[in-house]
Amino acid sequence: MSQTNSVVRFDTVTFAYDDGKNTLNEASFSARENTKYALMGQNGAGKSTLFKLIAGELAPTSGKIHLAHGATIAIAKQVMDREHHEKTVRAYLSSALTEVPRNIDKRITETLEVVNFAVPLEKTVGELSGGQQARLLLAHALIQEPDILLLDEPTNNLDAEGIGYLTAFILMYPKTVLVISHDADFLNSFTEGVFHLDVYTGKVDKYDGNYTDVVEEISARVERERAKNAQLLKTIQDRKDKVNFFSHKGGKMRKLASKLRDEIKEAEENMVGVRRDDKTIRDFIIPAEEWKEEVVTIDAVKVMLDHEPHQVNVEVRLRRKNHLLVKGPNGIGKSTLLRSLADGTNSDAKIAEGVKVGYYRQDFSGIDFSQTAYDSLASIMDVPDEEHIRHIASVFLLSRPELATTVGSLSEGQKGLLCFARFVLQEPGLIILDEPTNHINFRHIPIIAKAINAYEGSLIVVSHAEEFVSQLVFDQELDLSHLMKKIA
Fold first, then answer.
1. Whole-structure pTM over 0.85, yes or no?
2. CA–CA separation, 140 vs 163, rounded Å?
């Protein structure tokens, strides 16, 4: 097929949810066959919504979406729906196919090899770690071998090895791929073009080049537009001053004033609608609960080897200001350790009674999706203070419309920012962070890292985002892969 052929084309597409706010506003763009694209835009801009429109899960409010004849589409979503947790791996991946072939086990195994994942097919989805579920989400899309492959934050929860396998797959995939990701290095490794969804205008602009080049090009364009507007504003003001002077004169002076008015109108028409840069959250501080005794004690951990748990004795003690990094590959037991610690179901890992715990879960299951964002923030406070809640929400770019929205309707990135806003209002003695940069715009990450470093309570972090981890300071480390070597 010709490289210049369009596989999907948006023709003046507008889309709005029930709140009436346009996610897309007469957006027009096209994606070529057999090309790799990145889709960028601020948290909450509507990137995942755009994917749903391509896939036909949503219909445009107006305009048309054209697909190449017979084109098939598959999405690898950000988060595993809880309705799939009781399914076996075999049943979940089989559900991706319209007709299940006789050799389904062979086909599943081959697809799992692509994402570097081996697992008993009878194992249930809910038993898998966040990283393993991320690989399964990818496999669910890949097994369909679609003409248009849509990957929504595919590196979330993946370790370095998993990202390497995914990158190689995308480079070799012979069809069209669109990727939403905040991982610049990952995107730069394969991107041939970038779509930028502007959260303010609802328009989509298309650029050629890799991700970093496009980010720099957009920044340069913004500066050029601002400079042009500044010069035009200066010209307009100069002409207005002269009009005011000459309009009170007679004869030729009055004609000159009329000519200047025409020049003012032309200059105003030439003013450029400057694209507003993606906003960044403001600096923030997470207040810490005072606590004099030990906050966390861990005497043993369960490490997964060949899908079987093995208990290993350790000695971890966390007091106020102690920050612990838990390391290890996907599926080794990191999230299980954090979950059992927070839930109080681990007799070998305990939190001191009475300590307030802030827990960032990978799937945000610790927050009530049916609440509004405002109620979610208010519920974490002993005495809710509306003015303080709205102020803290604004720090995390959660304005009045977002606060009135249910948590479940927020984008994944906005849910992440909501969690950090909750920590600020909660003032916990212990914060547990399980992949806290998942879904978060890369512009926010240095500010979040700064706040975490300044946090004076006890802290436990699990993260595969190496750039983020490199910005943090830890005084203790628990490497589960080293413990696994003791077992083996």
1. no
2. 17
